[in-house]
C-alpha cells in the first residue's frame, strides 16, 4: 500500500518535451504532464509508444527543472502496442531515467503513475493495471498496480511485482 496520492501542478507539454529530449508530438495526445506524490514526487509524463523507446533524458537541464519544481524525477509511460492481455488487464510500458542510469523497476513511481492514470481516466478505478519497466536495459520487470478514485482524490494504491535480481547480500555486525 502507498499513501493517498497528492496531485501537484500540471505542466505545458511544450515545456516538458525538450527536458525529455523529445518533441511535443512525442507526448501522448490529451495527456497533461503532472507532478504526483504518494511519498516521493514524480512528474508523470505519458508518451507515444515509439517515443518511449527513444527516451534519452538530458540530465543537466532535467535535473535543474526538477529541482526548481520540487519534483524528484520524471516517470514516463506509454500504452503497450497490444493494449491489453488476454485477461483484459491494461498494460503500459514505463521508464525512469536518473543521474547515473535507468531503474528497472520503480515501485514508488508506479504508485504515482497508477494514481495519475486513474484520476485522468486513462485507467479504470479499482482495476489492475500492469506496468512493464526495464525492457530497454534488459532487466524486465512486471509491476502490478491498482488505485481507487475517491471524488477528486485517489486512494487504496497498491503496487506489487517482480524483477530480475542482480545482487544479493548480507550485512553482518562486526561484533
What structural category arises from helix and sheet content? alpha+beta
Helix content class: 10-25%
Mean pLDDT: 92
Distance between the ends: 36 Å
| Total beta strand runs | 9
Characterize the largest beta sheet: strand count, sense, and whether it forms a barrel.
9 strands, mixed
Q: What would the principal axes of the Cα set say about the shape?
A: globular
The unreliable regions are: none
Could you spell the SSE succession in H and E letters?
Answer: EHEEHHEEEHEEE
Radius of gyration: 16 Å
**Beta-strand content:** 35-45%
Individual helix count: 4
Can I get a quick summary?
The chain has helices at residues 13-16, 49-54, 59-68, 107-119, and strands spanning 6-10, 34-37, 41-46, 73-84, 90-98, 101-103, 129-133, 141-150, 153-162. With 175 residues, the chain is an alpha+beta fold.
Q: What is the fold's blueprint, element by element?
A:
Blueprint: E1 6-10, H1 13-16, E2 34-37, E3 41-46, H2 49-54, H3 59-68, E4 73-84, E5 90-98, E6 101-103, H4 107-119, E7 129-133, E8 141-150, E9 153-162
Parallel strand pairs: 3-4, 5-7
Antiparallel strand pairs: 1-2, 2-3, 4-5, 5-6, 7-8, 8-9
